[in-house]
Amino acid sequence: MPIHDPVFTPPFNVVRASHVEFGVRDLGRSRAFYVDCLGLLVSDETADALYLRGVEERNHHSIVLRRTREPEVLALGFKVAGEEDLDRAAAWFARRNLPTAFPDLPHQGRTLRTADPLGMPLDLYASMDRGESMLQKYVTHKGARIQRIDHINCFTPDVQASYDFYSGLGFRLTEYTETDGENGRLWAVWMHRKGNVHDLAFTNGVGPRLHHIGLWTPGVLDIIHICDVMATSGYLENMERGPGRHGISNAFFLYVRDPDGHRVELFTSDYLTVDPDHAPIRWSLTDPRRQTLWGHPAPASWFREGSVFSCVVPREPVLESQPIVAM
Ligand SMILES: [Fe+2]
To answer: Model confidence over 76-118: pLDDT tens digits?
Structure first.
């Protein structure tokens, strides 16, 4: 199974995962979930869209909720270091016959809208309107006290192909799951730009689809607290998995589903990965501590259900291997 050396001089400089735009059917119902329950802050609200951010975020938004007829994902946003990176990226994608457009988007500077070779949509941008950091305005911290976006996790029909592509863009591997046997195949990868376990992860499955976005909470007790809140405020059925501690990433987690089925992870306490010689950790697909350090397997919905990208038809994975699934 080919693992690559890190690329320290990528063709353009992606800084981190930045935002996701969800298509939702009922903005009022979504607002109740994301704002009133989870505690995200509202940066702007129109008749058709809601712009949200965590309490420490100075970017205008890390989640956009846009009214659509059916649930879908409209954009995966990544911040680049500067405007010149956008020009380099546009030329790089164009040379590979991948789409390049610069749509005008509210609250964002110039944004390159493109896609990876498997069809996963990407919005690259360098500047966004500023939101006031509310980090020390503690009175505004509600729900899970979400601080910021941490990562984006997607299903891909070909983990090796997705890994190869993003590795070439400077995303560095921190952990991976491999099938057992002599010719191990990549089943999942966690890759970062910003210096913790991941900005972007891929899991084998029908794809490309979004599996979840990860939102950072300040501590484990914030995740326990939101379990109590959800269980007693009409959101019991929205809790899909956890709370628990991942073997992979060491993070404490809870997975919830929004009113349209989009999956959100509340996530905290992973670790630093900035050292250039940081060696990736291998996990066997059959290690029960991989999904949850304490051995609890994930439910079947975890491996089957995800959010479709707008105008992208998912396809079956090339790898048939299956993980341990809860009965
Ligand atoms: Fe995650």
So the answer is: 999 999 999 999 999 999 999 999 999 999 999 999 999 999 9
Spatial contact of 309 and 120, defined as CB atoms under 8 Å apart:
yes
pTM for this one? 0.97
Distance CA 322, CA 89 (A): 36
CA distances to 66, 74, 96, 179, 247 from 309, in Å? 14, 6, 21, 28, 29
Q: How far does residue 214's CA lie from ligand 1's centre (Å)?
A: 5
Work out the number of other CB atoms within 10 angstroms of the CB of residue 309.
Answer: 23
> What angle is formed at CA 290 by the lines to CA 161 and CA 193, rounded to 5 degrees?
50
pLDDT tens digits, residue range 16-75?
999 999 999 999 999 999 999 999 999 999 999 999 999 999 999 999 999 999 999 999
Distance 243 CA to ligand 1 centre (A): 13
Nearest Cα to Cα of residue 230 among 213, 251, 204, 254 = 254
Distance 213 CA to ligand 1 centre (A): 6
User: Residue 178 forms beta bridges with which residues?
Assistant: 186, 284
CA of 215 to the centre of ligand 1 (A): 8
Rounded distance from Cα 199 to ligand 1 centre (Å): 9
**What is the b/e burial string over 9-40, where b = at least 16 CB atoms within 10 angstroms of the residue's CB?**
ebebbbebbbbbbbbbeebeebbbbbbebbbb
